[in-house]
Automatic annotation (TrEMBL), chains A, B, C, D, E, F:
Belongs to the manganese catalase family. Transmembrane segments: none annotated. GO terms for molecular function: metal ion binding. Mn(2+) binds at residues 36, 70, 73, 154, 187. This is Manganese catalase family protein. The lineage of its organism: Bacteria, Pseudomonadati, Pseudomonadota, Alphaproteobacteria, Hyphomicrobiales. Binds 2 manganese ions per subunit. Its cofactor is Mn(2+). Keywords: Manganese, Metal-binding.
Length: 304, 304, 304, 304, 304, 304
């Protein structure tokens, strides 16, 4: 079972302008083969399919707890996309005249379907608008092989995060990347250590791949300063603490990052307020004439 | 953000025998167009894309909290699939000789790929092995339209659950269906009420669709007896309690179900122990010679 | 069986200029999940799969006759796309030199494949170039559920038509939208009434969804003035007249539209001349040197 | 525009038993790459995209009229599928107890999804359950190339029809194949002649491909006896008669078929009654308790 | 079995500038339905599936040897794409600051995923970024039908090559098209002759389709001058020489091309040097800090 | 460029009986995500996209030469599939009566489409009939990351080969697996060594994954005895010999395999005769009445 907290894992700055093509680029990190939908579903299905979990409990705990974190990553990227696609909160809801082609610009953005389907919301598709699909999930039940996959997946995801980051100039999307680069590195590192425990191969010496330190990413620094790169969370399930047998026991931060012991932390990061996405009546979000709906909702609330 | 609890939403009885074709049928409820991956991702993306959430808070809370429950539904179906595909826990791990075609039977099951990819684990694919994909997600940002979609989705999902149920004779899969039919009915009902509040149309009078009462499903009875059909949960986020403006306020259980007030419950159901899936060395799960891995894991655990 | 009439359901004004990106946007209404290929094939397959049609004949007649109309909608959107992609009829066929990159601009349009495959013709793909596929068809055989789907589909299609309309400034595409918004509203209304007859739920009170009246769409007015919003056609099969049991019997136009009785009309609308698409030799349509072909065809015709 | 006639192009004998796997094989001829959805949509889109139609009118008429016929082919195969999947009309509606796994057998059929989605109805998918998709449509606007494609498509479709035929023992599916083999041969022949007129190449000498005469197919004989192999129909649009410039003018039946002049016939074949598909309450078609629906429909009809 | 020669089939001029959209257009000829991945895999699978090859040996030799050539076509287009996407070889590797959005322009190119996945490399996708897939392969085992398919495929591929050519102004991509138009014409011609031998139908009289002579393509002239249009190669397997029974025996070049006998040539064309693609550290190709890797590789080489 | 040799990499024993479901299982190793189409295309595209090849030449040589070998693997699996699907060479061509449902059994095989499309030939699809697609190719241009992918891909492929092997009882398919397990292990080993040279991480210590020695596979023994597990081939391109800097230099066979030095061998393995697939007239392969075709071909050959 899963619980929900109405907070975002990181605080995203407001975008400076609407930039649907930048939002589309960020979609790669959501619905691309190496996006968060992939990391989420790989670990989620592996955790459901886990064999002999009592006998290899720390490994089960690792995959299971990271699954919970990935849900928040999907949420974070989705929020970044909606913010970039919609731009700064408007002073007022420009209803205007829908017959004057108010969204003419949308024919020239890279993924017109994003506007036509979602009105600027996030969808499980990649940067070209191709839908995420279930063939992106790998779950054989062989522990070493599944962990090797996860290690590779995180390195591949790191590459995609870096390249998306390099295309974005707006602070919202860059912050998404800066945060995810830190947390993705933690996951790559943790799978490397898991493989090392099982096979003796020092996979962590291959990190970071690609070989660029996070010190080169300004948006990652505050997370490094906090020590985020040394932490795994239990996400509410104390029984997952035993993943410290992998992530702990004297294992250290990667050489290029601020030094220190790796540690398992109970609970979850504090998180930040989720930005409120204001609707656009002309795009029928919440609706063309939302006042009535707002009024109904207010009355419903008052009656409670 | 999401938290995780290492429990299943319902207690699943052990299967009587391995039945990969029955497991494949159950895959429809996991990765089919009307499976739990679809309900999960529809509500999850809608909750991320929600507009004006402060102005229509009870509706946001409804969609957001149900998202959390759907994660557990995905988990429940996945567990049902792995149990059915693998059958009763074997007395011992029959290693045998991999050169004697020990899995010859797998060429004749309906989805050979399920064995070849996942060794009998669950995957995000449907009953024919087609992968779930992102076109199954609908999220326009228009509140009435998105809720109408959700109402339709739950009715369509109910149809698929009923038909899958009718194909299964083993208690494991039937229990999955029995539980999900109750909870899916709650979700259909809640979206009906949400639409009624917004539009005045008494959608709940169309329920149940298909028009068969849950009293006809023996496996649903204990959940009805507990009152599960009258409850929505906050799944850990108290701010979602205000969905009681929709699910509450004197609204009643559907006529065919045990009577009573609808109510929002803090937290989550107690849940049940997750079945431990025993590996099969011959299928390389956990691995061909897992003893070494078990030994490593035991030592790691001991050192903590 | 189906018959064909060499006319278009509505008269489309000539485009002012070629606008391949606007044509691509219009593709959403042809090959998108909520495009006319979807409405057509849903109703077509439902009509083929209909159960107990003699016992529920008016419902069968409704779905079957609308199928015939949808064929004309596919035709209408396809014509709009080819007109927008090709622009005004050229004064002469500019053959020019194919070695001077005469279609250089095509590398920068949103869907280069549309030019490369179809030379500016319409294809069963969406606004991002993704192909229409059979998972978009829903046909369970459960009457209430299939009708509920159809009602939802038409509301979703209305949203997509509105958003596409808002992106188009050229009269051709806008006329396509203006006409289809009227006819799509009829279909939504008819499925609402069908559901009301079967379940007692006043679904039509949810219309229009999104909640914007057609009076806001200038291109829709002439169709409303004609009373198109109050009419269903038999499309040549008189046995379908009994759908008047649903669309008739005193049922009225929706409140926001011009008032009047709903009525079933024998036959079909008058229709309009189909625009003749002139080929472009440089794009090999009809061919690079079409004169010979024209000559052959003229002689063949003369010999008849 | 298209009109509809509530008849089937050929009379299908009742099936002797329900045979879902045979129905699945027949799906190849509906939603496979060389199925009727492909022939229909190729000619339909080509007719919409046709260039310079006034200058090459007989060719336009040919493609346009065949489009109308293909709609009826889709209908014919769909009916064959539903009949085979459902079997003979039952004496009574066995409601029985849905909790006793009444559809247990459905887990072992080749396409369980066909039952789970469509309750034994036809869907736009192939014999393996893969959805038909828009990449199967070829429409370049180059007349010779599009006709060459159509000639190839019909030859490929003939191969698939022959192979499906060879797998079927029940008369229903065999009759579908027998009829379509005759009509598909007409279409192949007509595209051959169209190419010959344009290029001088005697394509019809390549027919039949595969090189087996229809005289070998017992189910085709009555259609040959009627002269169906020598006829193209106008399908209600007299302006299409000028395709006689291609199909006519002394052109003869293929050598292996009964001899005679090719001719264009106004209108359409007489057609046959469409089989009424009886619902199965246990499969929720029309619904679990359809009597109420039947009663409502009867009263609606009576009031007219 | 296949062997490899580290050369390209044709010499490609250096591009004048990076042009990712032109590279995307060229992708149509690689991963599109009528691209080189399709010609390659169609002939490859047909050659693997060939029936009675000893009895129809020249036809087997034809398909088998062309398969080998198509591998080089895939290579040629891939090289053209990488060259166009990356532009002229830079004077130095601009490492710069990855935090300054060095690839901001990539959000506005047509296929952002091409950069994000491949850093400007070629991928098996089409001009819209849709992946090539196995449904593009046709291999029935019927000799006439498979050859007819191949003839059609080459004509369709010729259309796509011509249209892509017309969109390109840079010499690199144009050279790719100029070369492939010559060789593709050879393949179309050879399948035409194969069909003629088997059926007596003079298919080659339909060539060229589209009906434009290669004399109109400046980039094709040097290959025509060499006589490339009259040659098929054995690609290293002398047993394939017997395809001269089809491509030879007095058969002549097409009328629009330089005249002469068709001939089978042992071996392969001389080929040209493959352009060395220089990495971009900022795009992590070969890596962010590749010097270390270069150093390792140099030392490894030295030790040999 | 690539050359072709008309031989198979290994000698396949004749099948004992036709077993279409076993053939379908073997399709997983051809068109599945971890099948030979994937290994081939991954290495092929990586070799085309290679950066700075002169600076990292041994790595380029490794990937490029293995590409050539993979072509032969695709060929080997394809041959295994056709042999299993068609069974032993029949004594005579049973033409019989196609109207007596001669292929009735094909409705019950797992992938009816395999028969309907390919008449028992191999296709680029997986064990469930899903088409191979281009998203299975990974080629970022980052050397370490691409090699890591390749290492993971080979380990994943090994798992799939092992599981397919365990389902097959017929010698043909088992031999395919036995051979590929040896060669795939070589490739995994070589990528491990490449990574070790670049990063210092001893990846080869993770081999074999899954952790079962080839000594357990009887069909692999003769290849081990020959030393195949210690050899990489240049496949005709001597410039690739420098991959000995990776595969050589004293590196040894894996501990579980027969000991010895790793070595680069010029050329290619001897290979074996390709089985001649006899057609089935009733399935229209080569055709329904192939004698005429055989006669034509014989005469053509005689005239040379």
């Amino acid at each position: 079972m899963f619980m929900r907290i109405d907070k975002l894992q990181a605080n995203l700055p407001k975008p400076k302008k609407a930039d649907p093509n930048a939002a589309a680029a960020l979609q790669e990190l959501l619905g691309g083969k190496f996006g968060e939908m992939s990391t989420l579903n790989n670990y989620m299905f592996q955790s459901f399919n886990f064999r002999n979990k009592s006998k290899v409990k720390p490994f089960y705990s690792l995959v299971s707890s990271i699954t919970a974190e990935e849900l928040g990553h999907v949420e974070l990227v989705a929020n970044g996309i909606t913010m970039l696609a919609n731009g700064p909160t408007p002073d007022e809801d420009h209803k205007g005249d829908i017959s004057s082609a108010p969204f003419k610009d949308m024919t020239d953005i890279r993924s017109a379907a994003s506007f036509l389907h979602a009105g600027g919301g996030a969808l499980p598709v990649d940067s070209n608008g191709l839908p995420w699909n279930g063939t992106f999930v790998f779950s054989t039940g062989n522990l070493v092989l599944d962990l090797l996959h996860n290690f590779f997946l995180e390195c591949g995801a790191r590459m995609h995060k870096l390249r998306v980051y390099e295309t974005l100039s707006d602070p919202t999307g860059r912050e998404v990347c800066g945060y995810l680069l830190v947390r993705g590195s933690v996951h790559a590192h943790s799978y490397a250590l898991a493989l090392k425990k099982l096979t003796g191969v020092e996979m962590e010496k291959m990190l970071p791949t690609p070989n660029i330190d996070l010190s080169k990413i300004p948006e990652s620094q505050k997370y490094l300063d906090e020590g985020s790169h040394r932490r795994l969370y239990t996400w509410g399930e104390e029984t997952y603490r035993d993943m410290a047998a992998i992530w702990g026991g004297g294992e250290q931060a990667l050489p290029g990052d601020p030094p220190g012991d790796l540690e398992v932390v109970s609970g979850h990061p504090d998180g930040a307020k989720i930005d409120e996405l204001v609707g656009a009546s002309a795009a029928f979000t919440t609706d063309y004439a939302p006042e009535e709906i707002f009024d109904i909702a207010a009355k419903l609330h008052a009656k409670m």
